[in-house]
Amino acid sequence: MKAVHLYEEIEIPQGINVNIEGMKIKVKGSKGEIEKDFSHISGIEIRKEGNKIVVETTFADRRKKAQFYSIIAHIENMFTGVTKGYRYYLKIIYTHFPVTVKVSGNEVQIQNLIGEKNIRRAKIMPGVKVNVKGEDIIVEGQDIEKVGQTAANIELASKITGYDRRVFADGIYIYKKEVIGSEQTD
Question: Which pTM value belongs to this model?
């Protein structure tokens, strides 16, 4: 069943600057700036009215409703990113061969995973910071999509194929996600 009229107002928090040009939203805060382009979505209107962002659509079927609420979630994630930021924790796990992980430029290099001689590489997305501290890798940034993609790239680069995962558990795994400055975890 179609929703005749969907209308949602998002309050802009203090200290955040929002600029909307068509379907492009630019959010600037104390931690940085994030820009997202929603022009691939049609039939949904985004505008700024005073200290609020208004998202509106009419005659929304299931697909358009999903897009409508996804845009709202993206905007709220952008607000959190430019004020607090996001942090993912990954754990380096090995049983016999000690794994060496280092950051070199815009990539993470994984050496000696299950005794391999080749270096595995994971791309770091722009605007994301990666620190290696002992057995932990900490991925930080403002854009939740880029932080999550960088963590996934590291996890995927260390994936071992062709072995029984119950025996060969070596790899790098995400074990904690959080908003910087809050104790809440997912």
Answer: 0.89
